[in-house]
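Hi everyone, sorry if this is the wrong subforum. Our group has a chain we'd like a structural model of before ordering constructs, and none of us has done structure prediction before. Sequence below.
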Amino acid sequence: MRLVFVVNDAAVEIEAVAEDMTLVDLLRDLLGLTGTKRGCESRTCGACSVLVDGRLTRACRTTAQDVESRHVTTIEGLRGPDGDLSDLQNAMLDHGAVQCGYCTPAMVVAAEALLRRNPSPTRAEIRSAINGILCRCTGYQQIVDAIEATSRGRRAARSSGETASTAHSGSSQ
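Answer:
Right subforum, don't worry. Here is the predicted structure as tokens:
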């Protein structure tokens, strides 16, 4: 099967894709985008989360053919405008929200999906948005703090006219 779609703002065309191939396997094995993790292999941990047309999607539950003519964003596509870490990724580091790091790509993707649709989420809304992604290291508090700080930083950047994605939302600034 031939597959054409967009991943991280780049057009992709793959000539031979097995009909039963999952999106996580396509991303990791064929495209080398290893930030999307294989986690539980039972479709429950959320480590494989990506954005498909802006919506949080578990790549292990999605077949490769399901993304035909769609836009996929992985953790590799969520960088700052200079190609460095985004404000959200910096906030995760600043707040100690990165421990073993296995869930971090999915947490960042889920948080970005939330902040795009709701720039001013409550802590309860943040918790709800990351609820489907398991983390065994942080206890989630630092992750919620980082997302909340990013939201504050982006709102402040918008009100000052700065580009939101360039505003550093960490506590060390």
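For your construct planning: The domain at 3-77 is CATH 3.10.20.30 (Ubiquitin-like (UB roll)). The chain has two domains: 3-77, 87-166.
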